[in-house]
Amino acid sequence: MMPKFIKTARNLQTKHRAICDGFLTQAIQKTEKAHPYIEGVRVFYNALKKIKTVENLLSLESHRRDLIAACGFSDKAITHLTETELSSAMKKVLSRIHKESGREFRENILYRYLLTKGDALGGSMRNITGASAGVKLTEKILEKLGGLGYNIEVVKSDVGKIQRIAWNNRVLFFDVKPRIIGKNIDVILIKRDNAAATEKSLLMDKKNYIACGELKGGIDPAGADEHWKTANSALRRIRIAFGRNMPALFFIGAAIEASMAKEIFKQLRNGQLTHAANLNENEQINDLVDWLLLL
Fold it and tell me: What global pTM score does this model have?
């Protein structure tokens, strides 16, 4: 049976207004998120201005992390270097910067620092965008469950991210990696007949699986196809892992372009997907959540 509010592929396609609203929301979030970065730049530059020669730069112990960023070393890279190796490498980079920029070496260091921090801010924003999609979905689920009067158990991570929601003999897991699939799945609905069963044991038994879904919250149309390819690959892995006894599969996306909408609609019609929704369409999301909770 096709979802109630999806009659054609065009129903799945993200409207221009939703894209505009999504970019505006991201811009506001980025402005707020940028405040500590901007303050960090100001403090770092004031410290740089007090340095007379490039040789004295490494004496800025309180700004060592800033200098590391300016030299182009990522957090991952420095885990493979000893402090001595890192200091030696930094000296070489800073000397090269000084050779290229002369008296303006302080400004050049600052510009390089800004490039690294800008990239870090971009990565942080991508995480926020993905997380906000999860928040929107879980809020809908909790709202619906609350309205049905269920006794709900919610488990969150240390940073407040919802990891699972349980009610009656159902558990909804978010962003887990079952061994039987081998990769992370965004949403998994599991049957839990034994309240004392562990997460690991529940996810190990294929008979417990009721539904699996992928959620992609990015609103940028330029990345829509790539997000769908990633989600489609994950759904394909589930089909392979389960064979004939496959759970219901669904997809939720914020940026759904025309060609992508046609492919999703085709999968709905031929049964490869059981349900789908555009994250920006409340009717579609409400319908998907109602369906999920009644499984």
Answer: 0.77
Work out how many domains the chain is built from and give that number.
2
Residue 232: band (very low, low, confident or very high) from pLDDT cuts 50, 70, 90: very high
Tokens describing residue 140: 């809908």
Go through 109-134 and write b for each residue having 16 or more CB atoms within 10 A of its CB, e for each that does not.
Answer: bbebbbebbeeeeeeebeeebbebbb
Same domain? 141 vs 209: yes
Task: Spell 180-192 as b/e; 16+ CB within 10 A means b.
Answer: ebeeebbbbbbeb
DSSP state of 221: G
Q: Residues of the chain with pLDDT > 70: what percent?
A: 96
Q: Which domain holds residue 36?
A: 31-124
Enumerate the β-bridge partners of residue 275: 250
Is residue 250 within 8 Å of 276, Cβ to Cβ?
yes
The neighbouring-strand residues paired with 189 are: 172, 211
- Tell whether the model's pLDDT for residue 286 goes beyond 60: yes
Q: How many CB atoms lie within 10 A of CB 108?
A: 16
Q: Beta-carbon neighbour count of residue 256 at 10 Å? A: 31
Stretch (H or E) spanning 118: helix 105-147
Three-state DSSP class for residue 268: helix
Do 72 and 132 sit in the same domain of this protein?
no
Q: Does residue 183 sit in the same domain as residue 51?
A: no
- pLDDT digits 0-9 by tens, 180-228: 999 999 999 999 988 788 889 999 999 999 999 999 988 888 888 898 9
CATH of the domain at 147: 3.40.91.10
